[in-house]
Amino acid sequence: MTDASATAPRRPGEQALTALGLGAPAPDPADASPHSFPGGGRWRTEIPSCEGPEALTVVLKEASRLDVPVHRISQGSGVWMLTDAEITEMVEATAERDVELCLFTGPRGTWDIGGSTRTDSRGAGLRARGHDAVAGCVEDAVRATELGVKCLLVADEGVLWTLHRARAAGILPADTTLKVSALIGPVNPASFAVHERLGADSVNVPSDLTLDHLTEIRRVSAAPMDMYIEAPDDLGGYVRMYEVAELIRRGAPVYLKFGLAKAPGIYPYGHHLREVALATAKERVRRGRLALDLLARHGAGGGMAPLGSRLPGELRRFDISS
Fold first, then answer.
1. Closest C-alpha among 213, 243, 215 to residue 228
2. Letter string b/e over residues 311-322, b meaning 16 or more CB atoms within 10 A of that residue's CB
3. How many C-alpha atoms does 215 have within 13 Å on its Cβ side?
4. Cα–Cα distance measured from residue 212 to residue 252, given in angstroms and rounded to the nearest whole number
5. Cβ burial 89-112 (10 Å sphere, 16+ → b, else e)
6. Lower CB count within 10 Å: N or C terminus of the chain?
7. Which of 8-17, 152-161, 292-301 has the lowest mean pLDDT?
8. What is the mean pLDDT of residues 43-64?
């Protein structure tokens, strides 16, 4: 990736618009996030919806071909949709490239027999319904970490708190990181701070939050934020590529997630969806290249965290003993 950090960042179209008398006010320094990842860097990258070893191979190969740096690869169908051999293959392939692998935990409400998620109100969404669903998530977490997975994706606040307690108790490895799904992502600074205190190491906020919303969140929490630069259709289908530099400026530390709009849903994944899964995996990497090129053109390509970095730094937690 071209390092454009030596030049002053500019906003899209800034010179031409200024010449036409349509220049925008200078950015307010007070809006900028004061936070960064431990070890330096204000942004990392994530390729989501990588549903198995074959898709992972496609992503890693395309990332090398297009020179797209990848910090994290995540999967959405869940630990329970993968065999031990498939998980082991993914763990080994990502470890070889020093990329964090994140797998989703357990049953979720949208696949449950409960009807509330199919009503106009969408009911409880992806949350774990009942004790058995929580137990399934814990089973997934223990199994995945025993196979070498270091990051777990969570879509329920109770499951998040339970896995955080399990981590503190040594049931899960101490360096396990917990990532909150975009499908329950908080939309205000108070709820973002609560997720941090419940044990989240990164929090996927909905991609329709405004720039001002990100600044509000950063005034109360330094926990890493995950954000789709392009969101899948079921998350709104937003494409915010021209805002990437400002999303970093206000939201750091942030994972830039390269999703894909106008693509068929593939959860829960199986081989009947193989062709679309591989094609969309490849295109997500290309979307990453487009976003990184745009950052470079605007002189905002600096500030990437070192490849291989994955830990979130010191975060605030609720007292487990209480």
1. 243
2. ebeeeeeeeeee
3. 11
4. 13
5. bbbebbeeeebbbbbbbbbbbbeb
6. C
7. 8-17
8. 97
